Amino acid sequence: MKAVWYEELGPADDVLVEGEMDTPEAGPGEVRVQLCASGINPADVKRRGLGTYGLEHPRIIPNSDGAGIVDQIGDGVESSLLGQRVWLFNGQRSGRAFGTAAEYITLDSWLVAPLPDDLSFAEGACLGIPCMTAHRNVFADGPVTGKTVLITGGAGAVGHYAVQWARRGGATVIATVSGPEKAAHAIAGGAHHTVNYRDADAAEQIMDLTGGAGVDRIVEVDLAGNLAMSLKVLKNTGMISVYASNGDPENLFMRMALKNVVVRFMVLHSVPRDAIDHARADIADWLAEGTAMHTVAATFPLAACAEAHKFVESGHKLGTVVVEPNQ
Question: What is the pLDDT of residues 71-83, one digit of tens each?
Answer without folding.
Answer: 999 999 999 999 9
